[in-house]
Amino acid sequence: YQHYFKRINLRSSNMAAQMDRFRKSIEEFLVKYPCVDGVLEQVSDKTKMSKVNLVMGVVGFTAVWLAIGYGSPFLCDFIGFIFPAYLSFIAVESPDTRDDSQWLTYWIVYCYFGILE
Question: Which of 3-12, 22-31, 59-68, 80-89 has the weakest average pLDDT?
Fold first, then answer.
């Protein structure tokens, strides 16, 4: 039985490490996009929840909605078009050209999949 419990402990510690990495990536995202961080700060103040927990809740809800929810094609199109379009406009206005090529690549792949669909 001890071997079985060791496997459970290894899996739970591995999952905890993955959750820590996910939390850190959310925090890095919020630092990178202060406009999203500002909105989350307001929501966090009103709900008394941390910004990271709010993001994880929205991600989880969105994943479930995309899997089984009504109107999931609209949500999928919104996530795949509106948000990247906003970030593309920001990239075009920035002096750095690396983000321009990143979003140009995204739109080429997006159009390619649209044609295949």
Answer: 3-12
The CB density around residue 82, as the number of other CB atoms within 10 Å, is 10
CA distance 40 to 26: 12
Does this model's pTM top 0.70? My answer is no
- Both structure tokens of 54: 């709010």
Query: Cα–Cα distance between 88 and 110 in angstroms, integer?
Result: 13
Residues 33, 114: Cα–Cα separation, whole Å: 28
- DSSP track, 81-114: IIHHHHHHHHHHHSS-SHHHHHHHHHHHHHHHHH
Average pLDDT across the chain, whole number: 82
Instruction: Indicate the residue type of 78.
Output: F
Task: Count CB-CB contacts under 10 A for residue 55.
Answer: 19
Burial grade of 22 (CB within 10 A; 0-12, 13-18, 19 or more):
middle
Q: What tens digit of pLDDT does each residue of 78-97 get? A: 888 888 888 888 888 888 88
